[in-house]
């Protein structure tokens, strides 16, 4: 008799019912739709304003002018006993971002536009919300508060609820193609002969 090698089954963590209801229940899709559209509209309008700016200070001949002003303002907030901008982020601004202000200008403008478009359409909602939160975090690290704390919190919620946040959106049709949506479990073959009540040999 040949004994097959024992293969341990990896442990899985059970998802609490409240977590599943909030972040994976399609019945709450209308709530997530409102949240997603609000955050998406904020990013879409911000990005569209930068891309279509008539002065071209974000995208165009003068690309980098607006970002340079923003970054220099961040550097001015690094002094004092309680600086608004951390020293390590100031180093990043001075040595990485400012020398490449034009490139960062394009990335910010089109990044906001792409994040907003994806959220409004409900396409790869979790990924779009993650990058939106990443933008918010960078603005906050640069000492700019404005609506960034609220949008960062909402983006975090959208990341947590990615399975249902795009249910009323393109994710409902796109995500199953990547195998990330639940499908009804297939029952294993029944090893019992139902007519005789004996194991199949």
UniProtKB/TrEMBL annotation:
Print the keywords alphabetically.
Membrane, Oxidoreductase, Transmembrane, Transmembrane helix
Q: Which residues cross the membrane?
A: 113-137, 149-170
Task: Give this protein's Gene Ontology molecular function annotations.
Answer: thiosulfate dehydrogenase (quinone) activity
InterPro entries on file? DoxX
Query: Which domain of life, per UniProt?
Result: Bacteria
EC number of this enzyme? 1.8.5.2
Chief site of localization? membrane
User: How does the entry describe its membrane topology?
Assistant: Multi-pass membrane protein
Annotated localization? Membrane
What cellular component terms from Gene Ontology apply here? Answer: membrane
Q: Which Pfam families match?
A: DoxX
Q: What is this protein called?
A: Thiosulfate dehydrogenase [quinone] large subunit
**Organism of provenance:** Deinococcus humi
